[in-house]
Amino acid sequence: MGDDTANVTGETGFPSLKPSLVMKVNVGEANPIGEVSNGSNLLHIAANSGTIKSIPGSGLDLDFQIVFGGDWLYFDADKGRARLNVRGVAKDTEGVPVSFMYTGTILMNEGASKVFSYSPEAKTIPFGASTTIHTFESGHPKYKFLENKSWVGNGRFVVHPEGVLKGLIVESRVSEVDASTDMD
After folding, report:
1. What pLDDT score does 6 carry?
2. CA distance to 27, 29, 42, 91, per residue, from 160 (Å)
3. Is 37:2 a contact under the CB 8 Å cutoff?
4. What's CA 24's distance to the chain center, in Å?
5. Rounded Cα–Cα distance for residues 136 and 156 (Å)
6. For residue 177, what is the enclosing H or E element?
7. SS3 of residue 63 by DSSP
8. Which of 32, 131, 149, 174 has the highest CB neighbour count under 10 A?
9. What is the tens place of the pLDDT at every residue in 116-139?
10. 155/125 Cα distance (integer angstroms)
């Protein structure tokens, strides 16, 4: 037994990512809660609109409107990272609801810091500062498959051309994690 990592060669056995969804969450009212028992600073952000749509070529046909949601966002005491805890409900074009959740981390670099401080200098930041893990729940047979897959995302903040106070969208590009069937 022991350390068998010495026998791992190449990239066999690792999962791959299949680009699948684009999630755009419109940021609403911010409610600063303040410093909590673990030393983090908690900020609740309403997220009651937006979209979740499958991309062409993904093999999925999803078109959801976000109707309710929020982020319980924790800023680390050292101000280096923020920790996402998003929950929401989205409905398809026929009104069928699904629950969505994602957690993740945001690197509080200069661009992200300007967004969260509502600085007039805030601008859309590129992908790479935020990574996420997504889950879905549905009681409808049409969407049960979403519960049985693993999903990861890469996020960015899209600032309105007239500034962050005019509008902010959290955009996530979400991929399905495909398990490898390789054998070493």
Report:
1. 56
2. 11, 16, 24, 25
3. no
4. 9
5. 21
6. strand 168-178
7. strand
8. 174
9. 999 999 999 999 889 999 999 999
10. 9
User: Average pLDDT over the chain, rounded to whole?
Assistant: 93
Bridge partners, residue 21, by sequence: 54, 174
Token pair listed for 88: 């929401």
pLDDT tens column, 99-118: 999 999 999 999 999 999 99
For tokens 């955009």, the residue is: 171
Whether 116 and 170 have beta carbons less than 8 Å apart is answered as: no
| Contact assessment for residue 8 and residue 183, using Cβ atoms and an 8 Å cutoff | no
Q: What is the mean predicted confidence (pLDDT) over 57-61?
A: 96
What is the C-alpha separation between 174 and 154, in angstroms, rounded?
Answer: 7
Mean pLDDT value across residues 61-89: 97
Residue written as token pair 């889950």 = 135
The pairing of beta strand 30-35 with beta strand 130-137: unpaired
Provide the residue type at 133 as one letter: I
Tokens of 30: 């911010």
